[in-house]
Write a structure and sequence with these properties.
about 325 residues; alpha+beta; Immunoglobulin-like; Cytochrome Bc1 Complex, Chain D, domain 2; 2 domains; 7 helices; elongated
């Protein structure tokens, strides 16, 4: 609920359990080290206080060296273990499963705008089914924001001019607060939303009663034709001016400067708004920038259309 968060937030997915284990494990280790250090400080302060009868003097050199080497090596291996434990636990959960439901998020001062594959749009809300991995593809329309759902142990920066992504798989229905965790201007504290997790049947009924525009790829196809993209990308023959877009998503392409690049959402975004940045080898750099012609929601739709094109297609729908 939007009121106060419980001390132990609702378990949202397996990654939240891993995050909790990491947090409490590191917290316990830190407390143990602090207690050890404080205990030694107190013991030595009392034992070797001024006027006490405790023996004083330098330790034998061999004992000192062994002690120094021992605690240094022990600390080093403890650090390596903690580094391996945290890194392996976190990195393994970054990539969303292949069957994830893809939802696009656009952040702007001061709201969250989300769009489902069916074309359904929401403002400051995100509905999702339980038991289904949800991949969030996010970008900002103005400044840096941060998509933060404490109950999911999930926080991801949302950047202008590029895509970032994260994912979750909720297993308990409920309404979870959504915040912006990056100061983004005057009304930053009011940039609030909610993630509404529903059982799959309830989610299906909710989707069915929403206004049904064209799906996201369909909207992108309309944009593709209205902007005249096909005049270059659909051209056939040896003298065509631009690469065919069919099946391009997910492939490696050679750039004019000799680099190879993966065609993902960020690459396509940059190709549309900054076409000179990653010019494809073998084609003239004549494509204009569409940065002022399409907003971020339009870019999401256009990229969804390009991703949907089969390998044998040009850019036609």
């Amino acid at each position: 609920m939007r009121g106060g968060l419980p001390i132990f937030p609702v378990e949202a997915d397996a990654r939240s359990v891993v995050t909790d284990h990491l947090f409490f494990g590191l917290l316990g280790l830190s407390v143990a080290i602090i207690l050890l250090v404080v205990s030694l400080v107190v013991v030595f302060s009392v034992r070797y206080r001024r006027g006490s009868s405790a023996k004083r003097g330098e330790l034998p050199e061999i004992v000192s060296k062994e002690f120094e080497i021992g605690w240094t090596v022990a600390t080093f291996f403890l650090f390596l273990f903690v580094f391996w434990w945290v890194s392996s636990s976190q990195l393994s959960g970054f990539k969303a499963p292949a069957n994830a439901l893809e939802i696009h998020v656009v952040a702007k001062q001061w709201m969250w705008k989300t769009q489902h594959p069916s074309g359904v749009r929401e403002i400051n809300a995100l509905h999702a089914p339980t038991g289904v991995p949800v991949r969030l593809v996010m970008t900002s329309q103005d400044v840096i924001h941060s998509f933060y759902v404490p109950a999911f142990r999930m926080k991801q920066d949302v950047l202008p001019g590029r895509y970032t992504e994260t994912w979750f798989k909720a297993n308990r229905p409920g309404t979870y607060p959504l915040y912006c965790a990056e100061y983004c201007g005057t009304d930053h504290s009011q940039m609030l939303g909610e993630v509404v997790v529903m059982r799959p049947a309830d989610y299906g009924r909710w989707t069915a009663v929403q206004p049904q525009p064209n799906d996201l790829a369909g909207q992108g196809g309309v944009l593709y034709r209205s902007l005249g993209c096909g005049s270059c990308h659909d051209a056939a023959g040896p003298n065509h001016n631009a690469p065919s877009l069919g099946g391009l998503y997910g492939q490696q392409v050679m750039l004019s400067d000799g680099r190879r690049a993966l065609v993902d959402e960020t690459f396509l975004h940059q190709a549309i708004v900054q076409p000179d940045r990653n010019a494809v080898a073998g084609y003239p750099a004549t494509m204009p920038s569409y940065a002022k012609a399409i907003d971020e929601e339009g870019l999401n739709a256009l990229i969804a259309y390009l991703k949907s094109l089969p390998a044998h297609a040009g850019g036609r729908s």
